[in-house]
Every structure is written in C-alpha cells, then in structure tokens.
Amino acid sequence: MAPSSSTDGPQVPRHSFAAAAGPLPDPVARQVAAACRGGAEGPSILGLSFVSERYKTLQRDTEAALRRLLGIPEGFRVLFLSGGATAQFAAVPLNLLSGGRAVYVESGHWSRRAREEAGRYGVAIALAADVVAEWAGWRAGPPPAYCHLTSNETADGVQFSDYPAVPVPLAVDMTSDFLTRRIDFDRVALAYAGTQKSIGVSGLTLVIVREDLLGRALPATPRVLDYARQAECDSRVNTPPVFAVFVLKAMLDWIEAQGGVSAMADNARRRSGAVYWAVDDNPALRAFVPPERRSRINPCFHLADPGDTAHFLAAAAAAGLDDLQGHPALGGIRASLYNGLSEAAVTALVGFLDAYAPRVSARAA
Ligand code: PMP
Predict the structure, then answer these.
(1) What digits encode the pLDDT tens for the residues 173-203?
(2) Crossing angle of helices 343-355/260-281, nearest 10°?
(3) How far apart are the first and last CA of the chain?
(4) Which residues does the chain have with pLDDT short of 50?
(5) CA 158/CA 107 separation, integer angstroms
(6) Cα 240 vs. chain centroid, distance in angstroms?
(7) H helix and E strand count, the chain
(8) Domains in the chain, CATH or no CATH each
(9) Are 309 and 286 spatial neighbours (Cβ–Cβ below 8 Å)?
C-alpha cells in the first residue's frame, strides 16, 4: 500500500492543544490504565460500586487532597457532582437566587451562557467586565443574591487576574483554570469546575460552597442539583462519576508531587508567557487580548491576514501540533495549556510559532 502523504518522511511526535479536554501526564495515564485492568490493589476501578468502602475512602481521600492543595477553609463543603459546569449554570441560581436577582459579570462566551441559563429561574443582570470594580453603584438598591464570574473565558482567551471584592456572595465558574492558581476564599463563596481540562477526565464537576449558602434552594430544585441535599448525602444522592473521581485523585497526587498549586501557577505563567512572546514577536501573528487580560491557560490569537488561518493550522498539524483552531464562534487560533500538557508540547509549539511564516510567495502568485 502506498504510504499516505501524512506518513511520508520522519514521524513527528503529536501533541494536542484542545480546549475542550486536557491531556493526562504520562505517569497519571499509566496509573489509570493499571487501575482499569485491576490487580493486587483490587478489581478494576471501572466496576467499582459507589456504595463500597473502597469508593467512600477514595472520595474522602480525594476531598482531603483537594483541601490540602487549595487550603479550603472549614465552613466550606466540597461536592462531587455530574452534569458538567453546564448543570451548574442552572444549579447556582436554583440554590442561591431565592426569588431575588443576581449579577452576572459578562466577559465572554461562557459567562453569557451562564447568565442566559440563570435568566430561566429569575432575574440575571449583565455587568460589563470592566465595571465590576465599580460595584459601589449596586449598594444603592436592594443587594443582589449573588454575583457570578467566569474566572477564565476558555473561548475568548481572557482571564481575571484577581477575584473582585464584591459585597455579595461571589460564585465563580473555574472550569478552565481550576488548580492552575490559588483561590482567595475570603472573596469566593462558591467555586465550581468540570474536571476534564486541568485535573482529569469528563463526567465530574466539583462544587466548593460556603456552608451558609446551603438550604436556600427553590422548592422545585431537582434533588441532584440541591447543594444542601448533596452535602447531607456526601454527594451520593445519585451515583457519582466513580471513574472520574479516581482520575482526579491521581491528578491531585501528581500535582502535589510537582509542588502543588503554586507550581501549576508558575507553569501557566511561564508557558503562556512564552507563547505570547512568540506571537507578539512574529509579524504574521496577532494577539488581540490586551496584556492585562490575557489568559494564562487559553492564549488566543489571529493571523495578521485571517486568510492564512487554514495554512497555519495545516503547517501546525504537519509539525505534530493538533487542535489549535479557535472556538467555532470566534475563529482564529487557540493554544490550550492545561496542567497535564507536557513540556515537550510547549517547546514544540513555541518553536513552531517562532518559525512560522505565511506563504507569501504562494499568495503573491
Ligand atoms: N464554563 C467554562 C469556562 C467552560 O470552558 C466550559 C466548557 N468548555 C463550560 C463552562 C461547560 O462545561 P461542560 O461542557 O462540561 O458542561
């Protein structure tokens, strides 16, 4: 059989920069594979019952590791739920709105989605991202029940470098930067994150919620989404995503061994810095987010000539760099730098960005 053009020449190592899900580091992937096979430590994790002592111990140990890594204070509960961050777009208003209104800081695609869902249960007011610091205006009227923020806009490549101090409970969607930065629990009353990007696989959503916010759910709140009920039942109102909890625990152990959240934050700063540096230095590429708002996790940029986008993506794929296309709604290029991404992948990407040149001669022809 004739070799296909993609197998001509030397094989290049392949790296994915997908935004939807992040890679597991090799040692974690090996540990998970062994646990799927089963062995001396017990039967395969894939058939583990959620009512078994083995699972209950796993969930307890996972929560303890998470509390250690993030310094989660007493007075906050950790919930292991399913349904993704999208289910939390409904759960947050169902649990916190109490018939009042809420403020949604609008910074891009995902914060808009969160606000639209909240609007199905009550009044969700959009607040532009650049005026959240001027919160004082809200003190005049009756206070909103909570303020919602998306700490890192996965699609738009913008991130809040600090959690704003607001005079009402702050609920934060941390899906794409969870465990890549420390959390200031003096400012954050509720944090939620799907685990598929920087801390494991899909299926599990973590909710960290201040205890005084429990017990306010609207009467029609589905039981699986009712924080108080899930807290009472140790997150076992229904079957939790056992496999995803196992992978999370393996990732937390790996993060701890790497030096914890501060090591992940250093990685994110250094890696994104190298990507933005290469982009800013290359006249064919344009980072369009102002430096102070640039995401350390999902750097986004355009080709100086948008007509070169397909050429860029093809050249990247030929160099072994996959899934660099921007969010379908926004276009352009996006390089997602989740915790599990290897140094080799980052080095290969930065080398490619440094060397990238559009096909001037082809265009001129
Ligand atoms: N919020 C943010 C910031 C996201 O990046 C995503 C997924 N990319 C979601 C929410 C939705 O997550 P899920 O599809 O797991 O519900």
Answers:
(1) 999 999 999 999 999 999 999 999 999 999 9
(2) 10
(3) 35
(4) 1-6, 361-365
(5) 8
(6) 20
(7) 10, 14
(8) 2-17+260-359 (3.90.1150.10), 29-256 (3.40.640.10)
(9) no
Tokens of 279: 């982009």
Measuring from atom 12 of ligand 1, which residue has the nearest CA?
A: 85
With a threshold of 0.70, does the pTM exceed it?
yes
The per-residue pLDDT for 360 is 63
DSSP 3-state of 325: strand
Of 110, 177, 249, 308, the catalytic one is 110
Tokens of 98: 């109490």
Q: Supply 122's token pair.
A: 């009550």
Instruction: Specify the residue with its C-alpha closest to ligand 1, atom 9.
Output: 85
Cα of 197 from ligand 1 centre, angstroms: 9
Distance CA 308, CA 326 (A): 14
Give, for ligand 1, the residue of 81, 86, 153 to mutate: max count of ligand atoms closer than 8 Å to Cβ.
86
Q: So what's the pLDDT on residue 39?
A: 86
331: alpha, beta or left? (left if phi > 0; alpha if psi -120 to 50) = left
**CA 252/CA 179 separation, integer angstroms:** 9
Task: Give kind and range of the element (H or E) at residue 65.
Answer: helix 53-70
Q: Please state, in angstroms and rounded to a whole number, the distance separating the CA atoms of residues 27 and 339.
A: 13
Dihedral sign computed on CA atoms, order 212, 94, 181, 103: negative
> What does the chain come to in residues?
365
Of all residues in the chain, the percent with pLDDT exceeding 90 is: 87
Amino acid at 47: G
Closest CA to 88 of 164, 198, 170, 172: 172
Q: What integer pLDDT is reported at residue 135 of this predicted model?
A: 61
Give the residues across from 285 on adjacent strands. 303
* Shortest-distance Cα residue to atom 4 of ligand 1: 175
d(CA 301, CA 325): 10
Please give the pLDDT value at position 9: 61
Structure-token pair, residue 182: 């420390």
